[in-house]
Amino acid sequence: MTPRFNLFRRAALVAALACAGSMSFAQAPVKLTLGHGAAPGNPRHEAAVKFAELVKANTKGRIEIQVAHSSQLGDDAAMVTAIRSGTLDMSANSQGAVAAVVPEYSALGLPFLFSDITKAWKMLDGPIGQELAKRSEAKGMIVLGYWDNGIRHLSNSKRPVKAPADVKGLKIRTPPDAITVDIMQALGADPQQIKFSELYVALQQGVVDGQENPLANIESAKLYEVQKYISLTGHKYEATPFLMSKRSWDKLSAADQKVFLAAGAEATQLQRKLSKDADLKLVSELKAKGVQIDTVDNAPFVQATRSVYDKWSAGPTGEFVKRVVQAAR
User: Fold this and answer.
1) Least CB-packed of 72, 107, 242, 257 within 10 Å?
2) 155 is a domain residue
């Protein structure tokens, strides 16, 4: 072979490899994975299934998404890590776990920030949500929607909670979310971080006295079976960022990216509706299961947690915290 022929063959080989390396999901049937920590029946799972159905239908079966529920792929923190590394394609994840990577998410969980859940959605669908999406992309995560993790309430097995003094001394499980820990400490509780997948057993065995979650999570995980008292404290809001690995996103064609965004928007609306509907009906359903549910006067709780605002307004994300507070009010 002549040197010129060898040079030509080498160039052709490089071009072929480059072409193979840039193949997108548009060129072959593929299966992707969407992981989350909720149980079947939870609005998060139902929306994940809907998203998978929409993508499959609108790519004519070319892209199929497997939904792995109930922390089958690890806890939320592990799934965030996997999203960033590209070993997991998508996750409907907890605000606290995402905030460990993009700290600005924590601001959404300031105590008693939103008087109505729809105000939180309006904020997330506006400039604040757009900024969070940009910050997420810089960390290797594409936001496909801001799902809802509800207004959170307190439950325990020891006593009714109607005032901040009733919280004092209770061992309360919290997710790995710094603001939630600060809120519980401000109320005098002893916060304990336990994986959600291990929470039922921890409550059953008395490792902790109580926990805080939206009613939909309390019901779908059957936490009411090991918690006699639920107090409708409404102490904080949490979003569920619906994320896709940027590495997986970049493999999609422009047309498929539009499909994913459209499916994400439709699944977001469904998830929010299911979450809101659940809160409206679950109070009576949980009472029928024998749980004592108490309403509370929020004013003393608001006063007891003011120090959380002071701390976070003066912290590293203080400027963003102040903008979130202004936007909420």
Assistant:
1) 72
2) yes
Its domain, for residue 168, covers 30-328
Specify if 1 maps to a domain: no
**3 state DSSP class of 309:** helix
CATH code (residue 69): 3.40.190.170
Residue 136, Cβ density class (10 Å: 0-12 exposed, 13-18 middle, ≥19 buried): buried
Q: Is residue 14 part of a domain?
A: no
Buried b / exposed e over 308-322, threshold 16 CB at 10 Å, is bbeebeeeebeebbe
Question: For residue 285, how many other CB atoms are within 10 A of its CB?
Answer: 13
pLDDT level of residue 23 (50, 70, 90 thresholds): very low
User: How many domains are there within the chain?
Assistant: 1
| pTM for this predicted structure | 0.86
Distance CA(317)–CA(230), nearest Å, equals 33
pLDDT at 103: 96
The answer to whether residue 6 sits within a structural domain is no
Distance CA 32, CA 56 (A): 11
Q: Is the per-residue pLDDT at 192 higher than 50?
A: yes
CB contact set of 83 (below 8 Å; sequence gap of 6+): 89, 90, 91, 93, 140, 141, 243, 244, 245
Alpha-carbon distances, residue 40 vs 156, 175, 283 (angstroms): 24, 20, 20
Cα gap 161→101, rounded to integer Å: 33
Rg (CA), the chain: 22
Strand ranges in the chain using DSSP code E only, listed in sequence order:
30-36, 63-68, 90-92, 141-156, 171-174, 190-193, 210-213, 229-245, 292-295
- Cα distances (Å, whole numbers) of residue 56 to 32, 232, 251, 265, 270: 11, 40, 17, 15, 17
Q: What integer is the mean pLDDT of 246-257?
A: 98
